[in-house]
Each structure stands twice: as structure tokens, then as C-alpha cells.
Amino acid sequence: MKVKLTEKILTILLLLIAVGALTIHPAQEVSMSTLGGDKLDTLFNIVSYLILFYFIILYWKGFIFVITRSPLQFFLLAIVIFSLLWSEDLSSSLTYLRGLIRIYFLAIYLAMRYPLKEQIKLIAWALGVAASLSMLFSAFVPGYIHESPELLGMWSGIYGHKNELGYMMAWSAGVFLHLALSGHRYRWLMWALCGISICLIILSRSTTSLTILLTMILLLPFYRSLKKTNYKLQVIMITSTLMLLMISSILLLNNAEAVVGTSGKDLTFNGRSDLWELVISKILERPWLGYGFSGFWTSNAASKLRATYDWASNAHNGFLELLLELGFLGFLTFAAGFVRFFVMALTRIISVAKKPEDYWPMQMLLIIVIVNFSEARLLTPSWNWLMYVTTSLSLTVEYQRNRKNILVN
């Protein structure tokens, strides 16, 4: 599918806005506002809405095609919309819903207009700009390195907080690593940007992001061997990997205090596990439908919990946050879509993959799972959810097109 240069430029602009490369935040203890003020955020949001509205008018048939081929993703969005009826804080729900719908429209557009191999290159443009700006601002501009005692010397880049920088650079390092290993024609540039991203992860001192990167690297040989083996060996390898993960989990649980201590954290994960106990008790009070999309933490229902943990503005676990907001109805819908995504990504490795960049959908799932054990980044108007929905829809569209070609031939 040929895409005109003007359209590609608009697409890159949308991705730059989504990745946060145009709204530059000093370290949070210096300022909570973007460089240029909060009005800049509003301006870029309006720009992205206008561009997407133009694309919807231009390609409305394609939008309908993608929506009808991915019922699970849009059933989950429907649950989010209907949750306004029982939301504990309707104002908060409406505010975040606007951003989430924008994410879905951008995901549909990307899946419709660009194959996965083209998407990863466009994403690389956005992440490369974000990584370069983060390095420049933290290295040469005062106010972009944390100065508070507990975070002293940790880089925050253009994202305002060291965790946000580390998280985005995990995406960046992963994308550039896979492009460099795939023999991209600007291979030297891919390695350079991968190196910058890894340096920023180290300078942000984000242990979660470093774990994500190391896990992705360690899994690359496994994907390659999976591609080369026959069906029976594939089943054995997948089963063995799952068993290894289970054994590792048991060993980690039995030696949790020693393992966690090496990362500079305590056994409560800096108080998160205590918070999770209270969150679970709140989930059990409204298990099926939850408290509504983004409707819990600013409501009276969370007042006692917030009084106990004044630092908690979310569950600090994406899976618990989803249960809290949409109950088991929303969580099981997400889980069904997640399993479908996993199967399609695994099938792609076995049947289609020729280069490391073809492993990216599976690697992306890995990032999402690891991050959401300590952060609430599921079903939010964020880069994390944009990548999840875009790739899920793209795999579905790719499958539909391949199936159509087989039937035609």
C-alpha cells in the first residue's frame, strides 16, 4: 500500500505527540508543567484530533473494516464507554475517555495504512527524537536531572520522572536493537540510537527497564531456534520455557528477600504490596463491573485508601487497576484479547519471521507484562496502550489479508 509523503509526515507528527517528544517536562520537583506551559499540551491534543478527523473522513471504509475484524478490542472499549453509567467519578472518566478514544483512532489508522514492518520504522522516528532530546536536555540544560534527596542525580530526560524516561527508553532500545539486527540500511544509526537509549536507562537507574531490555536480548536466540524447529520440537520448547518460568518464579518467591534487596528495594516493593492488599479488598466489594473507567482514585470510594497511602494515585499494577475499574467483565475481555494477541504473535514467529524485527510483537507483549507488574499502564491514554492496540489490530489485518490471498490463489 503506497502512502504519500505528506501523509507520512502527518503520521510521524501524530507519533511524536503520542511519544511525548513535543511536550518537554523538566524534572518533577522543578516543575509539573511542560516547557512552554500547559497550553502547549492542549494545542498538540487539538492538532492530533484534527489530523485523525481528517484521516477518518478520508478512509472511513478502512476504519469500519478494522473495527469489524477486531471485536474483542472494541467490545472492551464499549465496556469502558458503558462504565460511565456506574462510574464513581464521571468527570474523571470523561476526561480520560477522550484521550483513550484518540488512542484507538490512531491505532486503527496505523493498522489500516501501514504493515508492521513499516510501523516499526515510523515508531523508530518518534522514539529516536525522544531519546536524542532526552540526552540533550539532561546533559546540557539545568532542571532535567532529579535533585530531590531520594532521586538525586537520576536523569529524567524530557519526561519529568526517571521511571517514565526508563520506561520509554526500554521501548526505544528494543525497537532500535531489532532494526539494527535486521540489517537496516542505516544500521550504524540504529546502533547509535540503541546505545543512547541504553545509556539513558542506566542514567535513569530504572531497574525495571533494564530487566525488560536484558530479557528481550536473552529471548532472541530462543525465537530464532523456534523458527527453525519442527512442530513437535516447538511444542516441547514452549512447554519447557513455561516450566522454566514457573520454576524460576518459585525460586524467586522462596528467595525473595535476597533477590529484591539486590535491586535496592525492600520486600514490599517500596510499599506496593501493602497497597495491593487494600486494592484487592476494594475489588472484591464490586467484583463484576468495578468502579468505572478512571472513576476510583478521585472518588469518595478511595478516600480511606488515599489517606493511608497518600502517594498512591493508581494501583501500581496494571492488572489490578483494570479489575478495579472494569471488574471481571473488563478483565476477562482484556485477557481473551491478550491470549489472541499472544497466539498471533507466536504464529508470526513460527510461520512468517525472517528477521529479528519480525519478533517485535512478541517482545512488545513482554514489555507490557513486565511494566504492568509495578505500574498501571493498561487501558490508559498512553504510549503503552497505543502500541498494544495498534499491534493487535495490525496482526489481525495481516492475518485477514494473508487469508484472502490464499483464497484468491
Helix and strand topology:
Layout: H1 5-19, H2 38-58, H3 60-69, H4 71-82, H5 90-113, H6 116-140, H7 162-181, H8 187-204, H9 207-228, H10 231-254, H11 256-262, H12 272-285, H13 303-308, H14 318-351, H15 360-371, H16 383-408
Helix pairs in contact: 1-2, 1-6, 2-5, 3-5, 4-14, 5-16, 6-7, 6-8, 7-8, 7-9, 7-15, 9-15, 12-14, 14-15, 14-16, 15-16
Describe this structure in words.
With 409 residues, the protein is an all-alpha fold. It has one domain. The chain is 71% helix and 0% strand. Helix 2 crosses helix 5 and helix 6 packs across helix 8. The longest helix is centred in the last third of the chain and has 34 residues. The two termini are 19 Å apart. The model has no long low-confidence stretch (mean pLDDT 87).
Unreliable stretches (pLDDT < 50, length at least 5) are none
Query: What is the rounded Rg?
Result: 21 Å
Separate helix tally: 16
* Helix coverage percent: over 70%
